[in-house]
Amino acid sequence: TWHIPVAVLGSMAVFSGILWVADPLHYMNPLFHLLTGGALLGALFMATDYVTSPMTSRGMLIYGAGIGIITILIRVWGAYPEGMSFAILIMNAVVPLINKYVKPKRFGAAAVR
Q1: Less packed terminus of the chain by CB within 10 Å, N or C?
Q2: What angle, rounded to 10 degrees, do the helices at 3-22 and 57-77 form?
Q3: What pLDDT score does 109 carry?
């Protein structure tokens, strides 16, 4: 589905755009972050693996946004120039928690108050 790639690239663009607007002399343009390194490869092919990605569309958006934010954090303040693979591995570890908290209600179940 489109949820994970759009969330990854969108969160990368928004977070790097905030940094770039805050200090354009110190931080790179958001387009640079989207088109360099493994951003497109990771967002389109690596992050969308069926086995390690969340089951619901809301979970996929959370998962993708987490990957995008962690990627920019590693690129800007980390010791490595590319953070996509590390971000995917970190968010793969969080997927069971995402699935637990965003699973849909069972059909016929009473609403929890």
Answers
A1: C
A2: 40
A3: 65
Q: Give the contacts of 45 (CB within 8 A, at least 6 positions apart).
A: none
pLDDT digits (tens, 9 = 90+) for 17-35: 999 999 999 999 999 999 9
Identify the pLDDT of residue 50: 87
SS3 content of the chain, % helix, strand, coil (to 5): 65, 0, 35
Pair of tokens at residue 2: 């489109």
- Helix boundaries (H) for 1-113: 3-22, 30-35, 39-41, 57-77, 84-101
Write out pLDDT tens, residues 82-103: 899 999 999 999 999 999 999 8
Are 59 and 15 spatial neighbours (Cβ–Cβ below 8 Å)? no
Q: Between the CA atoms of 7, 8, 13 and 19, what dihedral angle is there, to the nearest 10 degrees?
A: 110
